[in-house]
Design brief:
Strand content: 5-15%
Shape: globular
Order of helices and strands: HHEEEHHHEHEEEEEH
Number of strands: 9
CATH architecture: Alpha-Beta Complex
Number of domains: 1
Strand order of the largest sheet: 7-6-5-8
Number of helices: 7
Structural class: alpha+beta
Largest sheet: 4 strands, mixed
CATH superfamily: paralog of FGE (formylglycine-generating enzyme)
Length: 314
């Protein structure tokens, strides 16, 4: 018990070195990480931890020409609208995703998959993470599988009698609003880069690490690990800015957006505005995801916009 308390204290203490926190996180994985939002409950259902509700509204999305590191696909900076939501405090962990893979009504259940996702699942090998620690972010997960996990966990958390809420992947505006707030900051913690606040090239880890070991890097929504560590899938199709809600059609073809950078990126590559794309079948060693919780009424509003023509990617 004393050892567990010491490990928990270390991962939360920003006065400890990055490497000390990383080693403590790895040790926690071996003894069973009890932090809320990292593991599972007695029924083998992932225990997700959430930010507070973020009220719906608008914010400035993307990068302005004043940022010398801004890439073309981050511009123009523009006003984006979003409905209220709350975002997962951590990326989904290996232990949590494994529950989906192993559940009788999980990975093998057709209900959670899009049509294209089902075709991919029939061709793909079942997710395998080998000896990856339980409290590391799950990687080697396609967009199809991430979206299916979200549908599955939504059904586990919200019974048919309580369908006022649902879980899904975040849209691009939701992800960026949760990462940077409304003041246009470059990083979740502000405008000045600090390698002690995220897992990136200069932090000294050089690989994936346990979620939540960068307490000073939390976003305005209080979410951990929004930049660095792993890229994260968004619900949105990859399209040039300004953002168009029609990119949220879950059945449309084309590449999907990933956000946040990864452990091997430099400071310019872990800014809140950085965006990249991958085909939905892609599985990579530095691509993971987190989920959002939204009112089902808001989701109906989003889906109503997708009925307008949105070209499929060629």
């Amino acid at each position: 018990m004393q050892e567990l308390k010491a490990l928990l204290k270390t991962v939360k203490d920003d006065r400890c070195s990055v490497l000390d926190r990383a080693m403590a996180g790895l040790a926690l994985a071996k003894v069973g990480d009890p932090r809320p939002g990292v593991g599972i409950d007695e029924n083998r259902v992932p225990q997700l931890a959430w930010s507070n509700w973020i009220s719906g509204g608008t914010f400035l999305m993307g990068s302005s020409g004043d940022d010398p590191n801004a890439l073309e696909n981050e511009m123009p900076q523009h006003t984006a609208r979003f409905h209220e939501f709350r975002i997962g405090l951590y990326p989904v962990t290996n232990l949590q995703f494994r529950m989906f893979v192993e559940a009788t009504e999980g990975w093998a259940d057709d209900r959670w998959w899009t049509t294209d996702g089902l075709a991919w699942r029939h061709e793909a090998a079942v997710w395998q993470q080998g000896e990856a620690p339980d409290n590391f972010p799950c990687v080697q997960v396609s967009w199809y599988a991430a979206a299916a996990f979200a549908n599955w966990i939504s059904s586990r958390l919200f019974a048919p009698a309580n369908r006022r809420w649902m879980v899904r992947l975040p849209t691009e505006p939701e992800w960026e609003r949760a990462a940077r707030g409304t003041d246009g900051r470059l990083y979740p913690w502000g405008n000045d880069f600090d390698a002690n606040r995220c897992n990136m090239r200069d932090s000294g880890i050089g690989s994936l690490c346990s979620v939540g070991i960068f307490p000073q890097g939390r976003s305005p929504a209080r979410a951990f690990d929004m930049v660095g560590g792993t890229w994260e899938w968004c619900a949105s199709l990859s399209r040039p800015y300004p953002y168009d809600a029609r990119t949220e059609d879950p059945d449309a073809g084309g590449s999907r957006v990933i956000r946040g950078g990864s452990f091997n990126r430099d400071p310019s590559g872990v800014r809140c505005a950085v965006r990249r794309e991958d085909p939905p079948h892609h599985v990579g060693g530095s691509v993971s995801f987190r989920v959002v919780c939204v009112p089902t009424s808001a989701q109906r509003d989003v889906l109503s916009l997708t009925r307008s023509p949105c070209p499929r990617a060629v």
